[in-house]
Amino acid sequence: MALNTTTSLGRAPPQLVGGWEAGLLVFLVLLYFGGAIVNPAFFGSTEALHALLRDTSRVGIIAVGMTFVIANKDLDLSVGSTYGLVAVVFARLYAPNFLDFNVITSVILSVLLGTVIGLVNGLLVTILKVPAFIATLTMLFIGRGFVLALTHGQAIYYSDKAKGQPLFFHLGETNVLGFNNQIAIFFFIAIVGAYVLAKTRWGYETFATGGNEQAAAYAGIRTRWVRIRAYLLSSLCATIAALLSAAQDKGVTPLYGVSWELTIIASVIIGGASILGGRGRVFGSCLGAAVVVLIDKVLREGWPITRIVVVDGENISVGAKFTLPAGAVLVFLGLLLVVAVLMEPILIRRQVAARLWAWLRGRPSPPAYEMGGVALEGVQTKGAMATDTALSATGLGKFLARRDALAIILTAVLWLTGLALRPDYWWNLPNTFAILLNYTELALITVGLTYVIAAGDIDLSVGAVLALAGSTAAYFLKVLGADPLTAVAMGLLAGTTAGVVNAVVTVGFKLPAFIATLGMFYIARGLAAWFVAGQQLTGWPEGYNLFGRKVNDVLLHFEFSLPSGMIRTVAEVVSVQTIWMFFVAVIAGIVLAYTPFGLKVRAAGGNVRAAAYAGINTDRVRFVSLVLAALCASMAGIINVAYFRSFNPVAGQFRELDAIASVIIGGASIFGGYGTVIGALAGAAVITLVRALLQLNVQGFSMPQHWINVFIGIILIVAVLIDIWVRQTNIFGILRTRIARGAPIRDSSNG
User: Fold this and answer.
1) pTM over 0.70
2) DSSP code per residue over 350-400
3) Distance (Å, rounded) from C-alpha 216 to C-alpha 210?
4) Helix (H), strand (E) counts: the chain
5) What is the pLDDT at residue 347?
6) Coil, strand, or helix at residue 319?
7) Mean of the pLDDT values across residues 73-95?
8) Three-class SS of residue 550?
9) Alpha carbons 61 and 342: distance in angstroms, whole number
10) Whether the Cβ atoms of residue 244 and residue 172 lie closer than 8 Å to each other
11) What pLDDT, in 10s, does the model give residues 497-512?
12) Is 367 a residue whose pLDDT tops 80?
């Protein structure tokens, strides 16, 4: 007798909510009760719960849009600056001391701005093929620059005018039912977003595109539009949250949205979404937002303590509150991001919770999701068009065919431009070397970052590592009274340790380099502020400051005087840090260009799998490159403290943007496989000269610093586009060939 057997595939995975969300809800309740035990004065009140839901609302609304982006296997680092910029633009449009528009016009223009930002992000990532983290990171810096430039670092308020528009501004207030209207709006957006992602064609297309974009395209899905749509949703959600904040606060500050991209990404990943794409639930992201906001509140609110104060010889007990020092919350949020991403391969993909529950009930364990590394493999370098051309060219053409020729030519052009605009300043030798001093810090960072980018990775933490090394050295000098050499050693140790952590998380745990170093960006920046208690430190032995002094100053310190002449003139303008930078650059350039290790770096970046098949230990190469980048940034931090004779927690701000732009302008490929130290140094010279020219006082006008940062961000995008479309795809060569043949131009892109 034949038996008909069927194989049960089991139930389909839940689309709206599942066991992960149930676990998050339990954890959220336990965490809240823990906060109530630690600080009953705050968390034991209904006002605290209401405040938690209200603050979660804005974060949760942005997390809804981010869920679509991450499910698409993309990333949006610009949501925090979008949130801040939209709020600032609304304030300037509406405030009576600025443009004084009515509320409807201000809202419409703000929504239009948010739409444009999302569309630009989507077009950069899909049509122009810019890596998502580079495109949105640049938009983050550009948006932040606009926020600071438009506010001039000051708050903008419009509370009096808001009284005449109760309909809109009531959205940020408590309603007759006793809860804030933002909570109701959040619930509505979360329900709609969850339904769309789980039950509609939009959701199906999103998961298909994130799971396997090429297969989705073969199935007839317009994957480019799906990804653009997700960026639009993300930006519009950030816009809604910004308008709700504007309605609640009746004003805006320059700090709106700072670090929110970290909070949002951590919320979505904690909510169960995969950084690999293809998985995510809106309700999980909303619960993740509640977890992150609650943890942030627990840390910021602190807990009550009793201090003993001696007054006239008597001990008096005084109630006080213990709060974490400056920067501690930022450190925790950075750690939270890394841990959240590590949860994905360790807990979620292995279905640890579901397997434990099945084991407790004595039932078969559910199968784990398909396992694999969580490293996101970017587009591999497609050929070396410029390199091949350089090999066959002769004479001047050989130089022009080099990938770093553009940076060298731009350096000369920018120098001559400065000479033409202000010959009285530009031709002065001390002023020339003053520009060189600004160049030294960036050049040192760029040298190490060249190795990382050539190896196919990225390091977004170099500016923060600079601050960490400088903060550590300043702490040992000022607080502990250490000698200069000990301070230098500890600063280098702190910064290099950050690089080792970057390398371990990226190479050992297989996290994407941009995620690992983004987490370190916040951790190192927070630690730098923590060490100095958020204050500027100054006043240490002159022996340490010699690292940032002119050569002649160093000789005079040791009571050695040069005779008058050319040597003394040069010694009076050349600094120790410049000499050290060139020494490091020469060694790094020789190693990268002429040694087996340099060849391994470029091979790993060009095609990591082929390099591994060739016997190259690609993990070791990437590890060393990330550590080297941190070491170079640490050197820059040590010199920064010596040059300025003080340490400011904002040291190194925007340096990661400058450094990445320098390396790409210098001819390196954003996808790895190519890079030269000479080109990177020329790229750093371009960025330094651009900043010097923009700050140059020409007929009484000089550009404010915040607008310069916007301009540098635009330069980075242009540099990446040149790398993709001119160096990689050789679009001009394709155009010339097609025109010569009279054939139609076929679309050619980098994957």
Assistant:
1) yes
2) TTHHHHHHHHHTT-PPPPPPPP---PPP-PPP---HHHHHHHH--THHHHH
3) 9
4) 35, 6
5) 66
6) strand
7) 95
8) strand
9) 24
10) yes
11) 999 999 999 999 888 8
12) no
